[in-house]
Amino acid sequence: MSVLDNFRDWKEFLGERVAQATQAGMESETLQNVAYQIGGYLSEQVDPKNDQERLLKQLWDAGDQQQQQALASLMVKLVQNPENVGRGN
Predict the structure, then answer these.
(1) Rounded CA separation 7/53 (Å)
(2) CA–CA separation, 34 vs 40, rounded Å?
(3) pLDDT of residue 84
């Protein structure tokens, strides 16, 4: 089973990677830029596996670059809060 099959697993996976990057000294702006690049890759290359991922892809595809960067930043903030990681599917 892939982390993309379950949104909770995806958030936990992303949260762990964000925590590792932060502990390694990656600056917030750099982290958000990486999240933006990953979001673009996922949107173009990965089929959504559940309703939450489908919604994120639709939001990503509907937005311009600035809005996509904001969405990526929000995903980083979402997983930086441990209360948000365990909630949802």
Answers:
(1) 7
(2) 10
(3) 64
pTM score:
0.77
Report in angstroms the alpha-carbon separations of 78 from 40, 59, 82, 88. 18, 16, 8, 12
DSSP symbol at 63:
S
Other CB atoms within 10 Å distance of the CB of residue 80:
16
Closest to 6 in 3D by CA, of 47, 57, 50: 50
| CA dist., res. 39 & res. 14, Å (int) | 12
Going from the C-alpha of 67 to that of each of 37, 70, 74, the distances in angstroms are: 13, 5, 10
Amino acid in position 37 = Q
Within 10 A of 15 (CB to CB), how many other CB atoms are there? 20
**Higher per-residue confidence, 19 vs 2:** 19
Query: What is the number of domains present in the chain?
Result: 1
Q: What is the CATH number of the domain that holds 65?
A: 1.10.760
